[in-house]
Here is the input.
Amino acid sequence: MSAWSLKVNGLCKRYGPVLALDRVSFEVEGGSSLALVGPNGAGKSSLLRIMAGAARPDSGRIFGLELCRRAYVPDGLGFPQATSALDWLEFLARLKGAASRREARSQAERALERFGLAEAASAPAAGLSRGMQQRLLLAQASLGEPDLLLMDEPASALDPAWSAEWRAMIAGLRRRGATVLFSTHRLEDALELSDRVLLFRGGKLERDVTPEAWRSASGAEVGISV
Amino acid sequence: MTRSLIIAGRETLQLGRGRGFKALIALSVVASASLAAAAGASRSVAGGAGSRVASSFGSLVFIASSLTAVLAASVSFAAEREGGGSGLVASCGVSRTAYVIGKFLGCAIFSAAAVLAVVLAVSALAGRGECPLAFVALAASALAAVFVYAAWGARLGLGRGSTLSAAGRALGFWLATTYVYEALGWALLPSLPYRLSGLFLAAFLAANPAEALRVGAIFLEGRGAIYGPEFYYWQRFFSSPMGLAAAVALLAAHVALPLGLAVAASRRDT
Here is the structure.
């Protein structure tokens, strides 16, 4: 178990009239895995965006974020039109602290290889299929050995074979002591890959339980729409 | 700073590979060739040498540089914000200030390279017998226009709405600063008391980037007299080292203000 931990304290976020997060608080121990579940618009993506630094909360704070290297997999991305998959990964590897351009290139090539995109390295990232773009997002998240991986519905566009690779990626990261937070609509993924399941509804954190506690709950509750 | 430079390098490459750049190159080639031909014809009729070609290109180069920079920057910023790329860059630990400065530099370098290519082509094709300093002044004023308008492009691209609306805002801003402001200002000037007109004129010219750049370019080319005798002392001031320092400070303020607003808008947007 890693020494560091995160404390999410009273996060609120509003988009116009919509309250996306309503005083959300919880703690995350380093090295653990948390699944965020809930219906569309429950606040999962907003929470992940704030934790990734891509959005700011209206109020509330997250303690401990400055101690870790983050990686973020957004739920879809408008890839730049004229940039190849390899160049795009190389750029992100440099931003994540690769020592030199050559080192960044090498990291990018390894990541493409791992996610089966070596043959598409020179293709424009914007022209790849939805599934390949999803793999490219996972590939960028694997750069720079992150301590905290934040993934917004990462397996939604993956076929079964690459879904298995994504699970292997999470297992590998956890063995290394990294912390993983992911949102999903697949309850079986949430129960199998996490230490805790956080149920969101209407911007509020409604339940925070272990998979075992979730399973042992009543059938009606297990079948809840997420 | 390192991260800003990485972002700037990537931005320049990305803009250079885009379809917009190819269209810009084609337009530049056509514009350079036709302007060079027009200048050659004018010289054969009027004879003589000096800085006529550079002077006649002044307005065109200003239009090309300011429009290219404001559109390239606004569209680039808006497209990345709309697509979610800026959020991903932020997750790599890049601050909003480093992100805005990096993208701004990339857009400015791209636009400057395109504009300098036009100036070089024109000076090579039609600049025989012309004063080389006139072309240096032309290039300097074009670069200044690029940096000022790219900074405003960054601010306009980080507003709300789509990429298309950002391009619309940029075009509106460019029209307002280059034409509408000038027309309103000169229309208002005669109605002011004589004592206030000098002060008004100074504020009027300094407050708008387009006017400040035009005046700077005119004085750099040594043509301050065309604004009338009241500019005699201004011309002397601008020709002095202190005047040059004041002009650079004014230019820096015209770049720093929109960039500061862009960083603030970027923070608000998240």
Q: What stands out?
A: The interface with chain A takes residues 3, 6-7, 10, 13-14, 17-19, 79-80, 82-94, 267, 270 of chain B (CB under 8 Å). Residues 2-269 of chain B form one domain.
